[in-house]
Amino acid sequence: MPTFDVVSKIDLAEVSNAVSNLLRxxxxxYDFKGSHCEVVxxxxxxxxNADDDLKLRQxxxxxxxxxxxxxxxxxxxxxxxxxxxxxQAVRQDIALIQGIDKDLxxxxxxxxxxxxxxxxxxxxxxxxxxxxxxxxxxxxxxxxLKEKEFILPLQFINFRD
Length: 161
Prior knowledge:
Layout: E1 3-7, H1 12-28, E2 38-41, E3 45-50, H2 53-69, E4 77-79, E5 83-84, E6 90-96, H3 102-114, E7 119-124, E8 127-132, H4 135-147, E9 155-160
Antiparallel strand pairs: 1-8, 1-9, 2-3, 3-6, 4-6, 5-6, 7-8
Helix pairs in contact: 1-2
């Protein structure tokens, strides 16, 4: 039976490259001269330290731009609460979201069922497996999911006949 998997994964090497490019741009930009802005990439979080709220928002925009240049959707960024540091300085953690949680997987299953396509969807950890009798049904399921806007970007992998 033909199958495919629905996943939401990001390439951490590309995220690392985007953060490196962000740091290079911060060093060269005139509006960041003399500031003490810092961006640190941990395993699955990005920590941003900035002089003030304005510079923090500028770093957000630059980061989104560099991620989009590397074909990573900015929807994978989960901006946490901004913490006040000494003076006007601010600190923020940005989590990198990977995998499909239960609520999103239920929404995906619901969308496929509402489209009345003859496929079965099963949850396998943080990804979904879609199985059908015909290849055309699976392609219809992919097109239905591509039309809908979900919180996370979805990828369709392991398409097998």
